[in-house]
Amino acid sequence: MIRLKRNLLLTMAVVMVTVALPMNEALAQKKKKKSDAPVVAAPAPEKKPEKKSIAELTKGSKKFEGLFTFYQDTVSGELKMEVAKDQLGKEFIYFAQIGDGVTDAGTFRGAYGENNIFKIVRYFNRVEFVKQNVSHYFDPSNPLSRSADANISPGIMASAKIEAEDAEKGTILIKADNLFLKETFSQIKNPPFPGESPMAFRLGNLDSEKTKVLAIRSYEKNTDLAVEYVYNNPSVLNGGSSAVTDGRNVSIKVFHSLIELPDNGYEPRFDDPRVGFFTTEVTDMTSASATPFRDLIHRWDLRKKDPNAAISDPVEPIVFWIENSTPMEWRGTIMDAVLEWNKAFEKAGFKNAVQVKIQPDDADWDAGDIRYNVLRWTSSPNPPFGGYGPSFVNPRTGQILGADIMLEFVYHTNRVVYDKLFGEEAALETHTSLGNQPHFCFVGAHLQNNMMFGQAFLRAHGASDLEMEGMKKEAMAELLMHEVGHTLGLNHNMKASQLFSPKELADKNVIEGKALSGSVMDYLAINLSPDKNTQGHYFSTTVGPYDVWAIQAGYTPVKSQAELDPILALSTKPELTFGNDADDMRAPGKAIDPRVMIGDLSNDQIAYSIHMMETSKKLMEGIKEKYSKEGQSYQELTQAYSVLMGTYTTAGGVMSRYIGGVYVDRAMAGQEGATQPYTPVSLKDQKRALDAISKYMLAPNAYQIPEDLINYLARQRRGFNFFGGPEDPKIHQQVLNSQRSVLAHMTHPNTLQRMVDSELYGNEYNMATYMSDLTKAIFDADINGNVNTFRQNLQIEYVNTLKGMVTGPQSNRYNNFAKSAALYNLNYIKTKVNNSSGNVSSKAHKDHLKLVINNTLEDVK
Ligand SMILES: [Zn+2]
């Protein structure tokens, strides 16, 4: 045994020497050995360098003991990592988080990154770091499980040479710089988008000399490394925003966490389509079911201290820490809002499930420490969100291991982050490459618009400072509850706003102490009562019935999945209705159910939208007076105008989704209260929506922007910032953008396709009839006389849309019925514009229309 070990060591030593020496020297040594061979006299034993032990190799290093022990050389900073014998072949969790970044590069403080499972596997004198696939399940009792790895590629992220080995303990030592100073575990630099502008900000190449380990923290169950990645670009076209000090040298700080897999008997819970949790998708490869899903919902490991009690404290509560950077005056509101969730947990059998503590000013830990769940505040130059509530999990079980909430100060101020608020939601959604993360949340930006709209409303009504503060606190509470909901595992419920009727919402006695919608996980419109005396809550101040029920479905302790069936069977109750982002209608042509929408409120979204548009119009009349302050520029007035226009456009967008809409019911067959999965919107509601859109967005006098206001829509000059483009108010373009935002949906190929298809299953609004109605709404009122410039813009836009449907580059997306309708309406308009009546401007406009139509019809021939 001993001999064997020694032999092994000797072999190892030879290998080490060979590898350690440059190639030619190693060859020379080999040759030398051969030529020495014939010499008869016993040669003096060759002096081979002793293989160094772990202790010797780490002699001048600082030791960081924990789950993984690290050594950092005190002279060079070189990093070495120890792997214990029992850690080889075992699964670990990897998790990455951005410590600090720049939004220019799609990275920002607190952004969560990779969260996966890896193994360290020995291969001769090396170890490999191998990412594991968690997407498939094979029933171990099924013989098919023997081919569980068939056609599934593992991810070998790195291979490191073993530098030393403890023969007794089996511990090995490897160099770790290549693991953590390179993008081995995580891709940090985003690839360029297809078709990205050459002017776009780009990170340079990773600079291995400047990239460095900032800190190592090793604990019993996790080891964290903070690394500063520096990207070098000798020559930059776009130096980035003010957040980038030097576009040629950009730093991104990343926390890497290596975490022990919890071995705690946690029971995974599987996803159900009727309630909205974040999940890790797992497919059962040995199941013959049509739905072989074992999708793991993300939730905390809550267990009752007293399993027999109806309501018990949890063994381990979910503790949130308010970061010590939080403004003092907000701490109370924040704490109360977070604790509101305990009302939901009580219905799931837990009291004090959620606890809130305040990080002491002299705390010896920071928010990057994954052992703490922190509510963090930042005031970033280019805030990427208003709130962000990510969590990281054990990918094998879905158990949430930690979560943070990032909150941006700017959304609680009057500084508008985006200049363009006119129905350009899409721009908000995609301005960073991290926008496609499921945890990414724009409710903060949305709430800021609401809050500023509320401010304009309250100012117009001469509200007191106290009322104003109260409204802002409600907005803050709604934001906090929403983000905490994310960290509890809940995704958005954009359908929840259906809870109350407009009449109920306008009555403070009805809504007192209640949530305004089924869920705080929605993006609601602000609740404004037409009568100031009956005004109740502006925002939700407690969690909604859906939230309570979702927590019950996710957290009620059960012995088997079947015990959850009675809870899930309640999903058909109106107050528990659910539809997430994937089903929602914010992008034109996307999804199908108009109730699953953002910026809406009440079970009559058309009526509520009309109310919001009327309110916007009324406020528009008075803002010049209310927002012009002596000694100040008109910046705030211009912003208030933007907010009013933005809300007006959002309300129009909400209504447009009724046209060609189909209600979706995700109840299971035979479930009590279930309806058929697809029910088209009634003819009456589709017509109501079109009529309101015609009146408020398409009619000749739809946008009544007071003319004496336009002269004052002036942003304050700052340096040379008008170099970007002329500063004058571009009213025609703004109005057209607002109209485009609804027309994009109303003439979308998906919408027109669905109108035709749904005629077969209940839709009574014939697509051709609808297109004809839309054309009449855009032309009939003024085509025989003078056409004002807003209508000219709209009519040209519409004719170009019809042209695009038959001959444009996107025309193949439209079905034949839509093309026929487009041609029919072009011919209709042609007969109308033949009159060439009206003033010079109107004549020119009609000639323009005629030319476009004739050319299009000619092209089709
Ligand atoms: Zn959200």
Automatic annotation (TrEMBL):
Residues 1-28 form the signal peptide. Residues 116-305 form the DUF5117 domain. Residues 467-782 form the EcxA zinc-binding domain. Keywords: Hydrolase, Metalloprotease, Protease, Signal. The keyword RNA-binding does not apply. One of its GO terms (molecular function) is metallopeptidase activity. Pfam families: DUF4953 (PF16313), DUF5117 (PF17148). This is Zinc-dependent metalloprotease. The lineage of its organism: Bacteria, Pseudomonadati, Bacteroidota, Cytophagia, Cytophagales.
